[in-house]
Amino acid sequence: ILNLLSFGILSWGVAQPKALSTKSKLASWEDARFGMFIHWGIYSKAGGEWKGTINHAEWLQLTAKIPLAGYTAYAKTFNPVKFNADEWVRIAKDAGMKYMVITAKHHDGFAMFNSPSNPYNIVQGSAFKRDPLKELSVACAKEDIKLCVYYSLGRDWQDPDVPTGKGDKIGWRSNLIDFPNEAGKDLSKYIERKVKPQIRELLTNYGPIGILWFDTYEHITKEQGQELVDLIHSIQPNCIINNRVGPDLGDYTVSEQKILDSADIKPWETCYTMNNHWGYNKADTNYKSAASLVQNLVDIASKGGNFLLNVGPTGEGVFPDQSINRLKAIGEWMKMNGEAIYGTTASPFGKFDWGRCTKKVENGKTIYYLSVFKWPKDRKLIIPQMQNQNAKLLGSSEKISIEINQNGSTIFLPKNPVNELVSVIKVQQE
Ligand code: H79
Q: What CATH number is attached to the domain comprising 415?
């Protein structure tokens, strides 16, 4: 019922005659807490390997120093015949994710959607010829997953008017050899010719877009960013925009590969890889465990943030098994413990050595969820200030005793955790 309320009636991204306030669309996004990031492009086909080197991913064109003509030719062979939008969306849904952010255009400049304004796209520029974003929009609508798009703004390695940064302090970008005339570049031409038309397409042809998730805005001025914000709102007022649309702009703060430790940057989202790459790298088997990913999710929720967990599908269009396995385990955990995540707010008690706390108010009564990462040897959780009387373990009928005094409370845990990843104690007011 709670989910229906927050996602059905007053929901971000939904095309409505009336625009929601920024506060209410963000509140409903924050209630979701958990989303799937997808890095998928031409580069996925290489799986990180190029002429014997195996350290590449979504930056393949640059890191392998492939000239644009060669990359374009490689794009033409891209044919992910196993791509199945329903399958991707079902995996996200089963993991307990509520939104999906897919790379519509990464730094390589190749649009992974049908872009009539620019032929460098998957329909016109690859063997696949299908529009995966269209298929995902249909699949997401069926499952009530919010479709969101990633768009690389400040970097585009196909457009002749985007500065590569050659010669500036980010010297590794001088690997880009195709448009060496830095002085003749005019970023505003790129914005008018490519960015604005593609934003219009993304916001017109795929139903409601939950978030426009921009990446990198070096060289973009605040005025240019603001124009994009205005354009987006003129088409879809309920679309959320992250803070990489330009300096000091956007609705919320993104942190990359780093879980913020402070609750004062609000609202915020951490995007995170399961192994060490965003795009598919077949040699990278260094995956985090399901338990640590669940702990990341709880940790982030306990500080009022969102967790955007990445998958890098293969060039055939399927998720790596290691990712699927972890998402399944997280989904199982969410089935039992999701109420400790969705619709919660930050811990009023800070962090604990044994785990984290999230909070919810229901019918005027406060509920605390205590997620135990490390089962204490003395089987006691001491929580200063907390005066709630009623404790139970999610997923178990066993009663938990709790002792309240004026300084707070002590919870007496059973011998063993009920969940092999993270066990959650729900503490309610009587
Ligand atoms: O899309 C993902 C990254 O490709 C993109 N943002 C996330 C969400 C990103 N753009 N810039 N950066 C990340 C930071 C720069 C990372 C680098 Fe590297 C590390 C550049 C050089 C070393 C990884 C390895 C990328 C190229 C080589």
A: 2.60.40.1180
Given the CA of residue 310, which atom of ligand 1 is nearest to it?
8
Decide which of 314, 340, 366 is a domain's last residue.
340
- Residue 58 Cβ inside 6 Å of ligand 1? The answer reads yes
CA of 343 to the centre of ligand 1 (A): 32
Q: Which two tokens stand for residue 307?
A: 């967790």
**Ligand 1 pocket residue status of 108, Cβ below 6 Å:** no
- Average pLDDT over every residue of 53-58: 97
For residue 222, the domain's CATH number is: 3.20.20.80
Question: In the predicted model, what is the mean pLDDT of residues 325-351?
Answer: 97
How many CB atoms are located within 10 Å of the residue 416 CB? 9
- Using N-to-C axis directions, what is the helix angle for 321-337 and 290-301, rounded to 10°? 50
Gap between the Cα atoms of 270 and 25, Å rounded: 19
Would you say 379 and 415 are in contact if contact means Cβ atoms under 8 Å apart?
A: yes
Residue 177's pLDDT band (boundaries 50, 70, 90)?
Answer: confident
Q: Both 279 and 397 in a single domain?
A: no
Q: Is residue 385 part of a domain?
A: yes
* Ligand 1 neighbourhood includes 256 CB (under 6 angstroms): yes
Domain that holds residue 414: 355-428
pLDDT in tens, 254-296: 999 999 987 668 899 999 999 999 999 999 999 999 999 999 9
> What would the mean pLDDT of 383-387 be, rounded to a whole number?
90
Ligand 1, pocket-test mutation among 149, 256, 270, 307, most atoms within 8 A of CB: 256
In a domain, 182, yes or no: yes
Rg of the chain over Cα atoms, rounded to whole angstroms, equals: 23
364: Cβ contacts below 8 Å, ≥ 6 apart: none
User: Would you say residue 349 lies in a domain?
Assistant: no
Residues 332 and 364 in one domain: no
The last residue of one of the domains, among 290, 313, 340, is 340
